[in-house]
Structures are given as C-alpha cells and as structure tokens.
Amino acid sequence: MELLLMIHTLKLSSARRVIAVIPHYGYARQDRKHSSRVPISASAVARMITEMGVNGVMTMDLHCGQIQGFFHGCPVSDLNPTSEFAEYALTKNFDPSNLVVVAPDAGAVTRARRMGDRIGASRIVTILKRRVVANQVESMQLVGEVVGCVCVIVDDMIDTAGTLCKAAEVLKEYGAKEVHAWATHGIFTDPACERLTNCDALTEVVVTDSIPQETSQTRCKKLKVITISKLLAEAIYRLHTEESLALVGKLGPDKREKNLLKDLQPLDNLVEEEDDDWPQGHEDPNAN
C-alpha cells in the first residue's frame, strides 16, 4: 500500500517517469490457482501497481519468470544476483573440481546451471522431490554424484527451511563433504531459524539483503547476508542513462564502480559559493 501511495504521489507531482524498484516481489509464489476459490495474488498485486501509472518495474529473481506478463503494458526488469554470489564464492576459495551446484527441484535447474557456469563448478545435480502440501515434502531422490564434494544448494528463496534442511540431509547421506545454501530472498518464517541452527548437515546459509535480516542474523549464527546494493545501483544508473540492462552484473566490480562514478560530481561543486556582493534585500527606489 505504501508503494502504491508513493507512486500516486509522484504522478500527482508531475513526475516525468516513475520506476518501482521492488527487490522482493511479494506474493510471487501465488502465480496460479492451486485449488478452487483462491486468488492469483501475484497477478492482483501487479495489476494494482500498473493501474497507478508506473512506467516500469525493477525486481530481483522472480519466483517464476512468467510473472512479468502480469504487468500488462509495463516493462519489467528481473535482475539476477548471480554476480554477487560469484564474488562471495571467491572469498571462500572453493576448489572448482570439487564444487557441485545443486538444484533443489526440477524448476531450479536453469538457475543452478547459471550459477555453476559463473563460479566454475564441476557439475550440476538435481534433487527430485514429491511435495504433499505446501512446505511439506514426502520424499527426495538425488540425480547425480556428490561423494566427497562441496555442495551449494541454489534457490530463489528460503521460507520455513523444512525442504532445505531435508535436502541438506539427503546430500550428506549421499556422501557430500559440505553443504552450503545460497538463496536470493530470506523470508525465514518460523521455525526457519531454529531448523537451520539445528541442522548439522548445513554448514552455512547465504542470502541477500533484499529483505532486512537483522533479526534473523541474531537468531541463526549460520546465516550470512550479502548486499545487492551495487547491483541495484548499476541497474538504476543504466536505466536513468538509457543504457541496456543486459550487461547488469556481468561487468567486474572495478569496472562497475568506475561506470557508476564517472558522472558523479564532487560535493563541493554542488554547493554555491557565498557572494559578498549579492544584495541582501530589495531597496525601495523612492526611499530618501
């Protein structure tokens, strides 16, 4: 509601263009009718945003790419944080020959392949799962070899963490050396933090700051948060300068910062110097 009111205010203020930057698009998982008499919330929210007259939407790692079609007549930029996770992977000094990227389900294979190519993983494996109801999985089966490997589970979000913890345990049972989990959005609905803390199979959980994580970090010591601020800044800069967003996240960090800073002016240049000759008031020409 606050976003809608801000868009409405900017339109009433004669803004030339209004772009809604939504790092985490709520209701993204409700993109279809799973049963009768339920709303398609992702479509309803998109319709409200477009009806307010927004000129564009920028978001991060949508749960389903087809959600972009809900914004009728409005361009949607779905950014990918793979570059930020790749930079973090460099700090971990993983051995590429011993690194495996895990897709937690069949729908995440494309995301896992993209991450694997970026960090130089040796192969991609998939977990096939049978879900009984939402957030509850009956069985899991691993497709691929992980014996003695460092596994990285890649997903778009972590909610209650039940499926994630079970996947980590399955990987350990198949002989994985370490299991890490990387996700763009950390929702952490209770009892997610408790489950992650008690899951011995998980070594570390990494999420972005698309959602504030201060509370979750105090409750779960395994949680690591990386920032997407530079990625969003680069995308906003390219959008403002009418450049293509295709290269967002594909440039190195040094070149990215150089492009962002090249048009910035020093603060001193933006402050007007005081002029002693400037008249302090209007004199009355008829005054004696």
Automatic annotation (TrEMBL):
<dbReference type="InterPro" id="IPR000836">
    <property type="entry name" value="PRTase_dom"/>
</dbReference>
<keyword id="KW-0479">Metal-binding</keyword>
<dbReference type="InterPro" id="IPR029099">
    <property type="entry name" value="Pribosyltran_N"/>
</dbReference>
<dbReference type="GO" id="GO:0005737">
    <property type="term" value="C:cytoplasm"/>
</dbReference>
<dbReference type="GO" id="GO:0006015">
    <property type="term" value="P:5-phosphoribose 1-diphosphate biosynthetic process"/>
</dbReference>
<dbReference type="GO" id="GO:0005524">
    <property type="term" value="F:ATP binding"/>
</dbReference>
<feature type="region of interest" description="Disordered">
    <location>
        <begin position="262"/>
        <end position="288"/>
    </location>
</feature>
<protein>
    <recommendedName>
        <fullName>ribose-phosphate diphosphokinase</fullName>
        <ecNumber>2.7.6.1</ecNumber>
    </recommendedName>
</protein>
<dbReference type="GO" id="GO:0000287">
    <property type="term" value="F:magnesium ion binding"/>
</dbReference>
<keyword id="KW-0808">Transferase</keyword>
<dbReference type="GO" id="GO:0002189">
    <property type="term" value="C:ribose phosphate diphosphokinase complex"/>
</dbReference>
<dbReference type="GO" id="GO:0004749">
    <property type="term" value="F:ribose phosphate diphosphokinase activity"/>
</dbReference>
<dbReference type="InterPro" id="IPR029057">
    <property type="entry name" value="PRTase-like"/>
</dbReference>
<feature type="domain" description="Ribose-phosphate pyrophosphokinase N-terminal">
    <location>
        <begin position="1"/>
        <end position="53"/>
    </location>
</feature>
<dbReference type="GO" id="GO:0016301">
    <property type="term" value="F:kinase activity"/>
</dbReference>
<keyword id="KW-0418">Kinase</keyword>
<keyword id="KW-0460">Magnesium</keyword>
<dbReference type="Pfam" id="PF14572">
    <property type="entry name" value="Pribosyl_synth"/>
</dbReference>
<feature type="compositionally biased region" description="Basic and acidic residues">
    <location>
        <begin position="279"/>
        <end position="288"/>
    </location>
</feature>
<dbReference type="GO" id="GO:0006164">
    <property type="term" value="P:purine nucleotide biosynthetic process"/>
</dbReference>
<dbReference type="Pfam" id="PF13793">
    <property type="entry name" value="Pribosyltran_N"/>
</dbReference>
<keyword id="KW-0545">Nucleotide biosynthesis</keyword>
<keyword id="KW-0547">Nucleotide-binding</keyword>
<comment type="similarity">
    <text>Belongs to the ribose-phosphate pyrophosphokinase family.</text>
</comment>
<keyword id="KW-0067">ATP-binding</keyword>
<dbReference type="InterPro" id="IPR005946">
    <property type="entry name" value="Rib-P_diPkinase"/>
</dbReference>
